[in-house]
Amino acid sequence: MSTVRKLGMAVMVVLTMTLAACTTSAVRPTGVVTGVADACVGHPVPPDEVLHVKLSLDSRSTVVASTTIRSGARYRFSIVPGEYRVTGWWGSRSVAVRAGRAVTANFASDCV
User: What CATH number does the domain located at 31-108 have?
Assistant: First the structure.
């Protein structure tokens, strides 16, 4: 077998192994933080006004996810297991996320 042919085969083997490594990445388990967030519960809101609630999910003072939802709507964060804080304008709450499980953190504010 010629040197060029041997070199070509070696290159093909390396490329095949490299591509295989790229496509066989490990899937990390996830958990879910979900709940309902309400703003100004019990207070009249004009029919043409829509209240929104901004939520963030923090891990060690770093925002890892955020969303803005309509008041009274459900939010959902799908993330890797760990300790987090769900934060909004009303304050924050600690949650522990476990693989394959959902943790619920509902929030309501009476705007007082």
Answer: 2.60.40.10
